[in-house]
Description:
Elements: H1 7-21, H2 24-50, H3 55-79, H4 90-112
Helix pairs in contact: 2-3, 3-4
Amino acid sequence: MSNPNSIGNVVAVLAKRYTADTPQLIKVIDAYLVYIMLTGIAQFVYCALVGTFPFNAFLAGFISTIGSFVLAVGLRLQVNPKNGFENISRERSFADFLFCHVVLHFVVMNFLG
């Protein structure tokens, strides 16, 4: 007899609840978060294997992925109806996200030189 609290059962229940209870917009943002995280991991692994010769280029790219991840988490928090941001519209949240991305990448491009 299998344990109902085993890791496999917990993951299965988590996946079932996520697909059933999470709105589509949140799933899209989560997919973007996974993409950004994998990009940061790939940059870090590349830096560890190949080296950091143009260190400012690696640092700019890594800061860009971390900043993009943080901004996307903020967007996810604001558009999720369960988090209590009812007074902020989804359009305003997305506009803030885009504006902050422009500022972030302006700083990253200036850091590259």
